[in-house]
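Propose amino acids for all 197 sites.
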């Protein structure tokens, strides 16, 4: 990323940063991101989800469509995404609107998950109270038997969201906390401005 003469579009720079994270960050989930949503009472909720792909159309992640986060998105689909790669001294912030992806896209990704993850998606009423772990594991065992020797279909209540790219901010740490920041805004076309650290 050339902060002195930033490219017109941020897409390639973001792709480069995601590639750098995959190559340089040795933790298990270099593409883990914090997803913040608006709760119904005006408060904000944050949690980690995994980015599964990035393109000019947006950021793709998967979850339970009946979870707290999904209900919050149903009511207000303005969300914020946050990546931090300490070893690269980089932060990437994205704001946008989350919309459900097509059933085909969700089916395709669900099919790549391990069988246990597929069973987990069926068994977990994500975000709801759980009396005991035994209760959850009993559901997993029951569902495993139900589909023994068969492919497991995607639950209708599980799938992907795509977060549009409304703003993207690149932050690169520098000595003396004189960090570099560029904020891109998408109003049909991209514009950008440099921000003070
Ligand atoms: C490294 C990591 C990756 C995670 N990835 C996902 C994910 O891709 N999708 C998801 O629904 N939850 C994921 N979770 C769990 C969420 O952080 C959260 O606990 C769950 O989605 C329930 O959130 P909610 O009750 O606010 O809806 C992940 C957690 C961690 C720590």
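Proposal:
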């Amino acid at each position: 990323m050339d902060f002195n003469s930033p490219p017109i579009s941020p897409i390639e720079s973001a792709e480069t940063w995601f590639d750098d994270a995959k190559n340089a960050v040795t933790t298990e989930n270099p593409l883990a991101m914090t997803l913040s949503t608006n709760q119904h009472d005006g408060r904000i909720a944050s949690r980690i989800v995994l980015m599964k792909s990035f393109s000019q159309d947006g950021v793709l992640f998967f979850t339970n469509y009946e979870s707290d986060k999904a209900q919050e998105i149903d009511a207000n689909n303005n969300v914020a995404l946050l990546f931090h790669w300490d070893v690269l001294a980089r932060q990437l912030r994205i704001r946008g609107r989350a919309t459900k992806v097509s059933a085909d896209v969700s089916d395709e990704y669900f099919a790549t998950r391990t069988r246990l993850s597929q069973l987990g998606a069926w068994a977990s009423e994500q975000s709801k109270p759980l009396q005991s772990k035994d209760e959850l594991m009993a559901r997993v065992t029951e569902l495993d038997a139900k589909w023994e020797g068969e492919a497991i279909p995607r639950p209708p209540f599980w799938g992907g969201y795509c977060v549009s790219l409304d703003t993207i901010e690149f932050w690169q740490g520098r000595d003396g906390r004189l960090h570099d920041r560029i904020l891109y805004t998408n109003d049909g076309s991209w514009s950008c401005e440099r921000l003070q650290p």
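The CA atoms of residues 96 and 118 lie 28 Å apart. The two ends are 16 Å apart (CA to CA).
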